[in-house]
Design goal:
CATH architecture: 3-Layer(bba) Sandwich
Helix content: 10-25%
CATH class: Alpha Beta
Structural class: alpha/beta
Mean pLDDT: 97
Low-confidence stretches: none
Number of domains: 1
Number of helices: 3
Length: about 140
């Protein structure tokens, strides 16, 4: 499981003219699953994301979590996180999980985030999405399990 986490001051995802998810302060999570991922990877990832302290305190130190700033997460499925562009000019996505594996992992991950008390908005799995964000900092982390 790979997650590209961006600390944002706002983010929105649209499918066509329809907004499927929108948050203010929080994390935009681009999430991809591999052919070898299992549900337990999502448990570790949800715990990690819920516990991260990436927001500045009064002294300007990254010391505050989502709960302390009233933040939320916007989760967008992103199979291209498993794109391999080492050979040729077109990436290979052979390591990316097919929908029959990825959808239950994605839905389970969303459930795990919500169980940890996070406010969760989403994109639409498998859809062509437009994602707009204001990256706060910028702060961007790569998480993998």
């Amino acid at each position: 499981m790979r997650v590209l986490l961006q600390r944002v001051s706002r983010a929105e995802v649209r499918v066509g003219d329809r907004v499927t998810g929108r948050i203010g302060v929080g994390y935009l999570l681009l999430v991809g699953f591999s052919t070898t991922d299992v549900a337990e990877s999502g448990v570790w990832m949800a715990d990690k994301i819920a516990g991260l302290r990436l927001f500045s305190d009064a002294e300007g130190k990254m010391n505050l979590g989502l709960d302390e700033v009233g933040g939320a997460v916007l989760v967008v499925s992103q199979f291209t996180l498993y794109g391999d562009a080492n050979k040729g000019r077109r990436p290979s996505f052979i390591e990316a999980a097919r929908p029959e594996l990825a959808v239950p992992l994605y839905e389970g991950f969303l459930r795990l985030l919500r169980e940890r008390g996070l406010t969760v908005e989403t994109g639409e799995f498998g859809a062509m999405m437009d994602v707009e964000l204001v990256n706060d900092g910028p702060v961007t982390l790569w998480l993998e399990r």
